[in-house]
Design a protein that fits this description.
It is built from six helices and nine strands; from the N terminus they run E-H-E-H-E-H-E-H-E-H-E-E-H-E-E. The protein is α/β, with parallel strands linked by helices. The structure holds 5-O-phosphono-beta-D-ribofuranosylamine (GRF).
């Protein structure tokens, strides 16, 4: 399955997808990386992997709809049939989300539906939750909404800072996003209502308790 990846910055999640796609057995390949920032480090990661890149600068478009339509055309022209958002820091128009309905996923660094938006690790620490994590979800018009596909959980430690928690969560993002893309590309995922259903879904056993006894 050909996919497009949309980024705005560092691109460490993009790198995890590039690395996964480099495996001959992996069922997806990245046909295009798009950034809305010309200086995004992820663009270098893509070029180093010989993946075509395009930059869309919002100054070149008078409306969000025009910007998104140009992106959509470029994605279709690349042959991509699915989109992964990986740190793309721009709201998408309703039209774009509609065009790519159930063919558009995002990774968010919290256990959705908790802690949407920005500064998620600050929010998690302030609220004193004992676990946080990351979520891969299908994208809907409202920010950080949509059927949940996969999540990973990490403990929040008493002396965590937003940075230490972010690093622990990011490590899991890099594991989860390629796994999620694999089952998508294997066509094992379908969306029914607000739920993503996975063929052969294997559930982990037992529970995690924080704090321990
Ligand atoms: C990640 O934490 C991702 O969950 C969020 O934005 C960050 C992007 O990091 N959506 P990177 O650019 O992939 O390194």
């Amino acid at each position: 399955m050909k996919i497009a990846v949309l980024i705005s910055g560092r691109g460490s999640n993009l790198q995890s997808l590039i690395d996964a796609c480099n495996d001959d057995d992996f069922p997806a390949e990245i046909s295009l990386v798009i950034s809305n920032k010309a200086d995004a480090y992820g663009l270098k990661r893509a070029s180093d992997a010989s993946i075509p890149t395009k930059v869309f600068n919002q100054k070149d478009f008078s409306t969000r709809e025009d910007f998104d339509a140009a992106m959509s055309d470029a994605i279709e022209a690349s042959g991509a049939e699915f989109i992964c958002l990986a740190g793309f820091m721009r709201l998408l128009s309703d039209n774009f989300v509609k065009t790519w309905h159930d063919r558009l996923v995002n990774i968010h660094p919290s256990l959705l539906p908790a802690f949407k938006g920005l500064h998620v690790h600050e929010q998690a620490i302030e609220r004193g939750v004992r676990f946080s994590g990351c979520t891969v979800h299908f994208v809907r018009s409202a920010m950080d909404e949509g059927p949940i596909l996969m999540q990973a959980v990490v403990p929040v430690l008493p002396d965590d800072t937003p940075d230490s928690l972010a690093a622990r969560v990011l490590e899991q993002e890099h594991i989860v996003y390629p796994q999620a893309l694999r089952i998508i590309a294997e066509r094992k995922v379908r969306v029914s209502g607000e739920r993503a259903i996975i063929d052969g879904h294997k559930t982990p056993n037992g529970s995690l308790i924080n704090p321990e006894k």
